[in-house]
Design goal:
181 residues, alpha/beta, Hypothetical protein yfbM fold, four-stranded mixed sheet, four-stranded antiparallel sheet, 24% strand, globular
């Protein structure tokens, strides 16, 4: 079981609309992990752009959390590793509505970091090269969601995402993914 609790001293972005990723360390006891998310945890927010980021990485649209993407590391930055979903045990201590989208252990975090770095997704040229491999349907979706500025928008979000995963990987941290209304 992975017990997750959000401290009274809320982490950055908590309560803001969108998808938020937090770099965390768990305490292990027997077969259980306990994670406390508080103001000290490094976090990033993908706001409402997580759908575009997921479409870009997976070359699919309308992808939802499920076991269908188990082993597809390109979906992990948004949905986590689905093999952990049944083990997530949120301990809610307030009435704030929070959806736990996913969890990545330290080896998943390292894999995501290597995938993002390997595709140079923190650089405009890497984004353009990756974009050129996408299906026309996904490109149209991204253009509709992000407008004429799709590439600059993706560069902005991916610089932050790549840096976040690089730092979490170097610290051998895990990642919790939550969403607020």
């Amino acid at each position: 079981m992975i017990n997750i609790q959000i401290d009274e001293k809320k982490p950055e972005f908590y309560g803001s609309s969108g998808l938020h990723l937090y770099s965390v360390k768990s305490e292990k006891s027997n077969n259980n992990r306990t994670i406390l998310i508080d103001e000290k945890n490094k976090g990033i927010t993908l706001y409402k752009q997580y759908d575009s980021i997921l479409a870009f990485l997976s070359n699919e649209i309308d992808l939802y959390p499920s076991n269908d993407h188990e082993g597809r590391i390109e979906t992990y930055p948004v949905y986590g590793n689905p093999k952990y979903m049944r083990f997530l045990n949120p301990i809610q201590n307030d009435m704030q509505e929070v959806d736990f989208y996913g969890y990545l252990d330290a080896s998943d975090v390292r894999g995501v970091s290597e995938f993002l770095d390997g595709n140079a997704l923190d650089e405009e040229q890497g984004i353009r090269t990756f974009y050129d491999t996408l299906s026309e349907r996904v490109k149209e979706h991204l253009d509709m969601c992000l407008g004429d500025e799709a590439i600059p928008e993706l560069v902005h979000y991916f610089k932050t995402l790549v840096q976040f995963f690089r730092q979490a990987s170097n610290a051998r941290n895990e990642v919790i993914i939550i969403a607020n209304g």
